Amino acid sequence: MSTPRAVDLVITNQCNLRCRYCYHFESAGDVARDLPRGEWSRFFRQLERHAVLEVSLTGGEPFARPDLPEILQDLSRHPVRFTLYTNATLVGPEEAGFLAGLRRLRAVQVSLDAGNAAGHDACRGAGSFERAVRGIRAMQERGLPLSLQVTLHRLNAGDLEQTAEFVLEDLGLPSFQLNSAYDMGACSRHREQICLGLDERRAAMATLEDLERRHPGRLRASAGPLAQLRRWTAMERARRNCEVWPQGGFLSACGGVFRKLAVRADGAIIPCNQLSERVLGWIQHDDLREVWQQSPELARLRHRQETRMQDLPGCRDCSWAAWCTGGCPAGGAEGFGTEDCLRAFLEQGGLSIDQLVP
Amino acid sequence: MLLDARPLPRAGLVLRREHDDWAVLFDPDTGSGFGLDPVGIFLWENMDGRRTVADLVEALREHFAEVPSQVADEVQGFLQSLQERGLIQLP
């Protein structure tokens, strides 16, 4: 692939909320200044020249940036489809109407942590649930393509059933996506109060398994307890049936560096928003294609896929080493003992293997 | 599609080269994609609304080695499929 197919843009470092589990604030991506609109405009021309097809805009909170409408109008003149990530608290009928008029808006993804104020506001601040739901309904009234992201943590995991009912029944959305608070950025300061412990993870898995049965195909997950449950179940079934997985046994879980890049609010080109300290170049003076093809750091990250799991510390004798693909490279989450490690979960008493796959 | 037709790529589409000399023809308004092999890419890049289908077949014979005898039929069928998907137009 000569250029990235997709690029994630942190369009602003400003945000009207300070969520306690935010991975962005207090990370290297938490920068002092936002790029001026003119710099983004020049970069949009680069995206077109290099045939980038998909863009996501995140923050901070994109609507905290006063010139967001001009930026989106500019972007929508280029041949890319884009997704906007928002907390929806700054979205009213006017903003929803503006979004509905944009060409090439693929989706608006809203963060909603629970189907009630207590669960949602626990990490996001009082009143944010009411404002977020008002924003969601304003966007629904304009027929915008919405998706919902629920981040599980200690203070909302017990609300899962009610959250699912609220999203799927009351809001009437076709599905929602789950992940979990990760020990990064501001979350690291609150990890004991926020990140799911073993008991909460086990309980969440049981609830999610039940919700999946009741709402088939309507729960999605790329990280967190549901994603782990699905991956580990598949790994154990493959092990029992002696199936071979094409990329199993290698550090191949992260495929992002083969298809996308990200850009910080100050213009630094980074591998992804969770690896914001690894600056590969700057959109103000570097060419995206050259960074994509020549960055030694990107080459190193891509090279991970050639690392055998059994060569990692603690993984040599693991029964699942031939199927495991490691975890997210952010925070060095690979090998034995990480949150994505099945064997560690079993050894710590999370579940027995027969409970995982009867 | 007739051999004297003069196909023209629809404006606003993105041709993005991917692995192994293949490419995807991407419609940013709908998000749909259409895969092109090297012959498809050659035809796409040579359509300009002035060259006829017969001209394109001839150019293809000159550019590629060992072009099969039924290539005109195959090119006509390929261009017909692009037209049915709204990816090309006939001025």
Q: How would you describe this structure to a colleague?
A:
The complex is a heterodimer of chains A (358) and B (91). With 358 residues, chain A is an alpha/beta fold. Chain A contains 14 helices and ten strands. A ten-stranded mixed β-sheet of chain A has the order 7-6-5-4-3-2-1-8-9-10, with helices on one face. In chain A, α6 links the parallel β5 and β6. In chain A, α1 packs parallel to α2 and α3 crosses α5. Chain A is globular and about 55 Å long. Chain B is of the alpha+beta class. Chain B is 37% helix and 18% strand. Chain B contains three helices and five strands, in the order ββββαααβ. In chain B, α2 crosses α3. Chain B is globular. Chain B starts with 7 loop residues before the first strand and ends with a strand. The model of chain B has no long low-confidence stretch (mean pLDDT 93). Chains A and B meet through loops of A and β2 of B.
What keywords describe this structure?
heterodimer, A: 358 residues, alpha/beta, 10 strands, 36% helix, globular, B: 91 residues, alpha+beta, 3-stranded antiparallel β-sheet, two-stranded antiparallel sheet, 3 helices, 37% helix
